[in-house]
Amino acid sequence: GDGKDLLGTVAELKHAHRKLSEQNSSLLRTVAQCEDVNLQLTLEITELRAKLASAQRSAVRARSLTEELEETRQAFKEAQERASRTQTICTKLNNEVECQKVNIRRLEDKNENLTFERTCSEDSINKLRKFNTEL
């Protein structure tokens, strides 16, 4: 009976060995697949990190452009205000020029009248001189 028990145990051990070998092969295939998946995930992580870095650079550039745009808007607003003040000054100067033109016309008219009066006075003086000489 000991021989039969021993043969049965050996058969069980061989069977268990075969099962364990199959499980081992299966586990080795699973480990190989996991390594492949791990490698793919590592590559994806590297790509995602590169994309993240690119997105961060883009965000920094966008912030920089936003600040630059705000500075440009402020400069434009200040330029508009200066232009408005300059336009107001120009309008005042144009009005003043028009007033001066009116004054010049008045003075020219007055000068023309005075010249006429002078000419008339000179004529009168000349007539009086002539008359005085005749006397």
UniProtKB/TrEMBL annotation:
Chain ranges of the KASH5-like coiled-coil domain: 4-135
Single GO BP term: actin filament organization
Molecular function via GO: dynein complex binding
Pfam families per UniProt: KASH_CCD
Record flagged with keyword Metal-binding: no
Record flagged with keyword Coiled coil: yes
Key words, A-Z: Coiled coil
One term under GO cellular component: nuclear outer membrane
Superkingdom of source: Eukaryota
InterPro entries xrefs: KASH5, KASH5_CC
Coiled-coil regions, chain positions: 38-117
Protein name: KASH5-like coiled-coil domain-containing protein
Source organism of the structure: Etheostoma spectabile
